Amino acid sequence: MEHLVSVVMPVYNCEKYVGQALESVLSQKFEDFEIIIINDASIDRSEEVVRSYRDPRVVFITNKERNGVTRSMNKAIRLSKAKYIVRMDGDDVCLPDRLSAQIQFMEKNQEVAVAGSWAQIIDKDNKHKGILRYPTAPSFLHLLCSNLLNWPCIGHPTTIMRREIIDNIGLYNEKYLVCEDYELWLRIARRCSIRNIQRVLLSYRSHSESSSWREKELMKKEKADILLYYIQSYMPHLNLESQMSLVNLLLFKKQDNNYYGDKVLGLLDFFCQEVIKDARNRKAAGASRRGIYLKDYATFFYLPKLAATNCKLALRIFLDMFPKSYKWILSFRYAKMIRRSLISN
Predict the structure, then answer these.
(1) What are the residue ranges spanned by the domains of the chain?
(2) CA distances from 90 to 50, 70, 288, 338 (A)
(3) Are strands 193-205 and 93-94 parallel, antiparallel or unpaired?
(4) SS3 at position 175
(5) pLDDT tens-place string over residues 167-202
(6) What is the pTM of this model?
(7) Which residues neighbour 160 within 8 Å (Cβ) at sequence distance 6 or greater?
(8) CATH number of the 5-217 domain
């Protein structure tokens, strides 16, 4: 029997919480669903807890060895034939009307590919710790910038996705072990709409045993890899102001995440080439205004290890076009460094 919804739940050593998670799905007001649980070779009582539920809507598969969350989710999605895929973790709790609210929203908004919701944070003892409020309609650029600032735009375990979207753009990228959702949202957002229902529909459990606590270093590395890839492909399609915003955020992130590395310099170099091109076009057209204030982006050019040739050339061209701009530099806190660099090059 095919259902309208497949709830996908990867499980690894969740004996403390998986019973509550499963019960919260089975007690939904909306009933046309199946739950595909992939037990990722747990070594605790997770399998015993799940098998104690005799509901025919529960499909239980055990991996012979650890595959990780990403591969386990893909395995579950391949098994599903439903129109909608709903994400759920083995330690979270659905509110009773989660499925009905999300199905109603998706049926009403056919242009939406993925819909999340707000979530309330609970601890290991089910005590409420706050609410995660996500933006209503995050765009591709919004996703890039918010992830650079560690402000996620969508909560992975709150989401519902159209199966046809997954069929068209592909499953989770198995290269990523903990940030597979970031990559999928960016891939989807380039072609489709993502929304968040402005209601709490899930209780998200935050505790020291969760993967988000254990894998922080790997998360930083994967997130840097994903964001740099998509920023590199998207930069040429942005105006100078938007490029400047992304470069500024990247330089900010580079201060506390070494995984961004030299690729940031390449993006800075590209940005400066665009500034040069814009400056020359404005000069040829006799423009009387700068496209971007020199003061706004001069910081990029002379931060330690970032004095690339194109940065200096961009600065020289602006000074040549607008000699009075030099007064901005004189009041700038990097003034001595900038003057020294111009003289020595």
Answers:
(1) 5-217, 238-344
(2) 10, 14, 61, 55
(3) antiparallel
(4) coil
(5) 999 999 999 999 999 999 999 999 999 999 999 999
(6) 0.82
(7) 5, 84, 85, 86, 87, 102, 103, 106, 114, 115, 116
(8) 3.90.550.10
